Batch of 3 targets.
Target 1
Amino acid sequence: MRGISFKVAEGEVFALLGPNGAGKTTTVEILEGFRHRDGGKVSVLGFDPASGDRRLKEQMGIVLQTTGVDPYLTVAETVDMFRGYYPRPRSRDEVIKLVGLEDKSDARVTRLSGGQRRRLDVAIALAGDPQILFLDEPTTGFDPGAKRNAWEVIKGLAGLGKTIFLTSHSMDEVQFLADRVVIIAAGRIVAEGTPESLMGRQQSDTLIRFRLPDSAGALPESLRGAARLDGGSVEIETRDPTRALFELTSWAVQENVSLERLQVTRPSLEDVYLEITREAEAAGTPA
Amino acid sequence: MNDLRLAFRQALYINKAFIRNPAALFFTLVFPLMFLVIFTVIFGNGHIQVGPGKTVLVSTFYVPAIAAFSVINACYTNIAISLSGSRDTGALKRIHGSPLPVWAYMAARILHAVAMAIVLVVICAAFGAVFYGATLPTNTLPSFLLTLVVGAAVFSALGVAMTAVIPNADAAPAVVNATILPLLFISNIFIPLENPSGWIDVVGKVFPIRHFADAMIGSFLGLSGSGLHASDFLVMAAWGIGALFFGVRFFRWEPRT
């Protein structure tokens, strides 16, 4: 890491993004106390995580990238075991219900699917009723339904005033959950802000897509320059979507042409993320 | 006090997982007893001289010898293999990120191993009493118990220290057996040493197994007073303390890759 600095406010959902090898896990592990920093200042809830202070650990919940629980204990036993380490744990059944493992409560860990194990990870992290929750790619391997549930759980925790520190490769997840995003590449911060401000920041064009029937005549003059034709499908990139759409649709109504599969897409957080990290790498930042 | 309770509670969870794991159960509990039966059946009828003017049935000799092996197996082998396994799955890292104190976790592992060792020694002693009339002399019971506790502590510490050397869980059984098997043969455990030849005697006495075996056998058979020699305890203590420092310095909670 080369001089990154950020603050996470209480009750915020904060997302740290970056390509593989950018230093995300290093950063998170320094905050969690697993890794010792070479320099710089770190404070989590007023404690230095490198001290391994128990009062800090009691207020922290951690979901690591890889699971590690005893395969021969049941879900309920595992959650209970961890609850015992904390001064004010959440109730066992509540924790298990939060992650949707009620039906598997008495199943041994060996019998859980990958996604269910991941949910058990989250349950363990919640067992101590933490003030701050570190989630390192928490929904990797979830099916879409389970992912949506997990997001709701995380949203709910944020609603209770918990601080959430998230890393993820899923931009949908970040867009859905994060209040604030920091993007790092090659050990440096290359962008930060709310997901909305990041998306607004880029000057990328809006894309208008549709299919033109063979019978249709030529597009209006003003759109012809920006349009790309590929068989019957047309793509128009524009910085002024209001005007472009007005011209397109009034032309279509006038000519009685139906614009099949008409679609207007703004650049997603993923597009923006790719653009920013590509720029950072192209800028020759030494790896 | 509260942390002591936590350590005890952790030992109960470790035990719960242990008794549900058929491989662990077999290699820790059944394996040594299997050796006891096999050795006594094959070699049991001979007599050996175990001390000046003291001769016993070989099967009687095997009762304390295999009891010593059980302690080594439950403490050293079991801890080194199961800790390496937990380290590789990330279970140790997860514990390390929780508020459970490090010492409480290690104490729980050791407590469980020592409890297993005691169970095995009791089974060996019962086996000896029933089949060979090899009952423990009451006057040396304290020295036998002392040997058992010191040995269990030393071999537990060595098990933790060895985990720091073992590269990954797949290599654990190989590394552990390579360190222990040759010594079991030259340390008065698998084969009674009546008059060990020079180098076997010297090599055996460098390592703690021979000293532990001699102390277990001496106190069980009631040889020479308490049956114990201070030198045996000094060597064991040296290995135990060395292992403790090595473990504290080099033990890692995360997979070594």
Target 2
Amino acid sequence: MTATEPIVVMKGITIEFPGVKALDGVDLRLFPGEVHALMGENGAGKSTMIKALTGVYKINAGSITVAGKPVTFSGTADAQQAGVATVYQEVNLCTNLSIGENVMLGHEIRGPFGIDWRKTHKEAQKHLSSMGLSDLDPRAPLSSISIAMQQLVAIARAMVIDAKVLILDEPTSSLDANEVQELFAIMRKVRDSGVAILFVSHFLDQIYEITDRLTILRNGQFIKEVMTKETPRAELIGMMIGKSAEELSQIGAKKSRRVSKEGEKPIVQVKGLGHKGKIQPTDEQIYAGEVVGFAGLLGSGRTELGRLLFGADKPETGEYELNGKKIAINDPHTALKNRIAYSTENRRDEGIIGDLTVRQNILIALQATRGMFRPIAKKEADAIVDKYMKELNVRPADPDKLIKNLSGGNQQKVLLARWLATNPELLILDEPTRGIDIGAKAEIQQAVLDLAQQGMGVVFISSELEEVVRLSDNITVLKDHKKIADIVNDETVSQETIVDTIARSGKEA
Amino acid sequence: MSVSSSTKSVRKNTSRRKGLSINAQMIPTLAAVVIFIVMLIMGQALFGNYFKLGFVSNLFNDHAYLIILAVAMTFPILTGGIDLSVGAIVAITAIVGMKMLAVGLNPWLVMLTMILIGAAFGLLAGVLIEEFNMQPFIATLATQFLARGIASIISTDSLTMPKDNGFSWIGGRGLIIIDNPKISNDLNFNAGVLIALAVVIFGYFMLHKTRTGRTIYAIGGSRSSAELMGLPAKRTQYIIYLTSAVLASIASIVYTANIGSAKNTVGVGWELDAIASVVIGGTIITGGFGYVLGSVLGALVRSTLEPLTTDFGVPAEAVTIVVGLMILVFVVLQRAVSALNKQE
């Protein structure tokens, strides 16, 4: 570790939005050759801080120096000029262009007759190779590679501008374990070349694995800068949320496992439900008051099965029984009419409607089930919005705020409220805790358990096995578009059980 | 599944699909080529004059303006935008040009003025879109009405060019490649066609060989991504609407020189012809994919549709219906082909 001068010094950064102080005198130092994590709950000001450093937001007070020189950024281009490169959580590349074009956009190599594509692609190849991505073809379309690989391509792009500082804003939230390791390998490479990396992640394991130094924020204020090695987890969490860690980790630990009654009928029972190329014919049943976890790697078919249960994709095969009655669920509208709700894993594109208010986002599904000629009375609407915002602790507690201005965790709570407002019998939650902070995560997990307690059937889809095991009564394990096991979740079941199940099925095949 | 095997499978996948996927983007454009050739062969087989030199010459000479408009329209559509003002810009520049020629002004000055007027409307559209955050559809609808209105205020008469105007040579016989002794069966391209050719080359160079061009495609992919990548999205938007408006004025010069007269109602609906050409040529209306050469082909297909339908005996009143239907069928066909390709 190098203990030289910091390359970036941000001092007393204050950013105000109308009515809110998003950041209040926050300090941040980044050192060359170090991975630095910005820690804090959603709404703590991490994203705002990053946007100050990348020139998206103007700062109201404070100073930024890069390599000893004071700078003011009036746009992302300025920041890039100064050597600050950023890779955002949602990959910000153009899927309509090739990999190489994306890497070199704005930096294409020009000859006497305009852009020299041969040289440009060669240069792109060079940058990809230096990231260990030499077997990617720069001429292939970006859309032909996985999100994870796109993330790595985004880093290669960032390095084209000869960055001194690389900001990675939650790059791991949509990656599986293997892909995270690949990302980390590249991060170490970049770090060792003397670049300062600013890393944001909600996964504590990753923070402890990759980072050297931490800056902790809470409610827009600077709490502390510490060395990762010298800070125990409990202490870190305590600093982030201002509560003790024990309170949080107990959720679901004492959960009394649901006992199924004799002769009880499931809410939903499907036989041979499938869709070619998405999920092979699958049997599944979900009882009232039961949490069924769908576990599997990315692309295992866990989302696809959830979507078929909701009719978001039309099943090609299989029978669907709802409370003992045969029914065809071929589209979401029918599903909603029959009190089945599905919250998407793709919060930004398929979940929230950014330009509507929190209130409108909560009411939209309920209104859709009633049809446009039966508007919800204002009083009733207010009551519903108020009830769920309180119950789920949506912050800020202002239903008239545009949802796009809320943090990820709070957007997720609003989505949950949207589906709860339709009063579903079966609630399918796809990655409800992805990319959100520990506090909001705990609240959502608790909500899932409470809902099941009240008699709702819940399908809980998550890439984090730990929470699947902690919350579920039964676990459906999927692999390669196929259900491979049904596990009754008792004391003997742990994350390892599931990992073993997935690994073993591979050997047989 | 181990680390290496999972990533390998992803990569193998990309290299295997490489050639296929790039082709997928070009399929709609290639389909336009095929359709155009089929149309010509069909015309030739049934009516016997589609391969005649005179027919080919007229196809280009009379539709050079549409080729220029199609190139112009490709720019905004590639970003997912649109420019509805091109037809009206043709009208106002044509009217002003005719008035200036009538009082005997220097034809070069006339052309320059026409282009500057077009540029002014393009700039206005750019300001409305970028500074007032308007949808391109609305902004250019506004400039369309404005341009058409001003043209009508200036004159509602049919204006003809004076003799010896130093302007109509653009629409003259131009470059005679084959001088056929038979009447009206020469292979000749007028200066308008050569201007259109220059415009096509300009469009190709701009879109594929400059950073501005790449930014246009990037905006078509995702405006916010383009901005976060530090690309000058705002400046590029200005360039796009300036370019399409200036090219519209050039189309106006070519068209009026060819016809020799102008009226305030000239160019009504031409923006739609241009959009149809661009779409037939394989550019996706939501932006991000497409080629200038495709638009040129689209313009040629669009231009051939009319003589073909007439030859088939479709009454003149019903020609637009046939044209509309063909465009519909054509686009559905394209969709089907690219959807099929994606599934593989």
Target 3
Amino acid sequence: MMLIAGTIPNKDLPLTLGEVRSDGELLIADGQRIPCTQGTGAMISAALTTTEYLNLEAPRVLVAGDTGQGKGSREIYRYLIDNIAELSPEVLALHYCLPDMALTRQLCQAAGKCAKRPLLIADAASMYAAKAAGLAPEFDIFTPDAAEIAFLADAEATHPAYINRHLFETNIARTPGLVSAAYRNNGAAHLLLVKGATDYIINDGDIMATVTEPDVPVMEAIGGTGDTITGLVTAFTFAGLEPHRAATIAARANRMAGELARPTPATRVSEIIARFPAVFRNYLCQWSGVCPT
Amino acid sequence: MAFMKRRQKTAFEGGGLVLFSEVTDAMRAEKALSKAGYTLKLVAPPPHLRKGCDLALEINLVEKPGIERVLEERDVNYVSVTPLKAGTSRLLEFATVTDFGKWVMVKSANMKLTFDKETGTIVNTSGGGCPDIPFLHSELIDKPLNRAPRPRDIGFTLCALMLDNALDESITIYQGEKEP
């Protein structure tokens, strides 16, 4: 089972666990409607599009409404802490949640009690909490962008708002230096996919691959295009790819979908997600050897 | 879901402190913030952060903007909200700008806001990871820069504060006070 956990910007959404399916522009889980917009919704949509194409079991999602006050986030953490051993997902991806270091620590301990430890992926503020609590090495995959790799590299920062200014101003070409600092300071997961003008795929400090093409700079402005990469990585690891191959193919597929959408900075992420099936049809089997059954 | 289990009390690791000059202010702040639903703990501040009062509130630093708003609304005096870790850099108040021709993207820490140069309409926000960010994304998009709700007023987290910085810088650029 692949389990994706994160908040949805709808205060009235209760804690919901269920297999997800698409219904037009919405996602449905346990009868609850989830918008496919920036954040966890975009990530789930990308993962679901991938599993649908590959005829794999659909993602299960654990979501709750939260517009910033943290109530839904804490419900998610606590449910996972209490139930992760029983759920025992093969892949667990944590996304938009109010960062809570103590609850993240408890969750890592609980994940260790699974019959088989899940592959742990974190992005967004779940990644911030893992790094701030000194738990980054417990995770298998982080997917930071250029500002976030500076945060992972800053030993003292507990949020990207507090990164050292000279790290923030660092050019993407200096990403390898920041990556080294992140590993040295225990701020990195085993595998990093650093999203930027050049995407870097790094495993335990070694650069495994870089992806630069197609180059679609406006994607940085489009809310949710980082979330879709995380959704793709999650689905590809669930499909059985090694993390570094899953990350490399996710970076390429996301760029290719962006190019197909001919985006402007005003484009919505749903228009990018809609291109994934075409990208998969044209390239996935050739890139990965993972083909629909 | 009716399947939540009984659990042990969670230890708190907030990473931030609210500092006070008077003990009574610290007590009032604890009451106001607890009532507003924040998780916090009364602690003795470390010597390097002591501002004349032997009590401080440990808070989740990420919630700094929401906590400051509650304290201001309830007229509770406080000295500052600060990271607990010695050596932490100052809060970033610096933005970078990317010119996309018809649009400008302004980036502050992990947050980005993009607007149409001609109309001043916000066309996208991206980055960040706190739960108020997808909410703010939907609240800001398609709004004119100068009539959009302020993330610092309706958001709760440091991500919202960084988005507010980006909005501030965008307004300055749009009003012609600074070249993109």
